[in-house]
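Chain A, query sequence.
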Amino acid sequence: MARIIVFMVFILFSCKKEEAIEPMPPTAYQGTLKISYNQTDVDVVIDKPAVAEADVLILFHGTVLYDSLIIQAAQNILERTKELTERKDIMFVSVAYPGENMLLGDNIKHAEAALLWVKNKASETLKIKVKKIFLLGHSQGGYLVTRLNTMHETNGVIANAPGPLNLVYRCQLEENGQIPSGSACTKIRQVYGTTTNNPVAYMDRSLLSFSSGFLSDILFVQGLKDTPIQMYSWPVFKKNVSECSDCKEVQILEIPGGEHASLFSAPDAKTTFNLFINSR
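Chain A, predicted structure.
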């Protein structure tokens, strides 16, 4: 009888032990993390839903003058994209990439580090299974995601008003006094000289030099009432990507009367954006 009692106690103890190690249900998370990949550090703002697995939208904000403002810029594009997105099961990773103390385009290594971190480390760090990965960028963020699409494959890329498209044209206007000087052109000129003396250095950093070799489907959204500098080079860029022979599918949505941030304000852009991420 004593042996039976001991055996029953052992069974009860084992059952309680199994109950104690049941996995916890998924939890939501909102916050800022400093991540690192390939010895490159970058801050990201994360909004994770309470699900066990999720598609991910990696977001890239537009240009800000000072790096003290990039966390707020990352938060802003995250909130605007959440309003744009119909689905509630997506995780957002918004990248606070720097730019104040470097030449335009050099921050591609920070953008790449964020993408590779999501691909290879986010699941373990955030306790969630990462499924599909999409990139979305606005303005200079659109420039970065377009360049990333020539470097790494994802499930899809969305670029709103990507630029600068043509730094030779833009910086030459500054040199001639036709528009006020800006930090991007000033920093390039300090290193490489003027557009007249070294136009190749400017074109190498222009998005027109990255209009082929797209590894993933990409959607470009462009408001046709954007700035004159953007619209001067947009027809050439549009022609280049439309005729690309070594690109995955390229979609272009032009918004008549649309301004610089048309992706976030035009109903047609919202519909097209959601169809794009839901069909891949």
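The chain is about 40% helix and 20% strand. Residues 48 and 126 are 8 Å apart (CA to CA).
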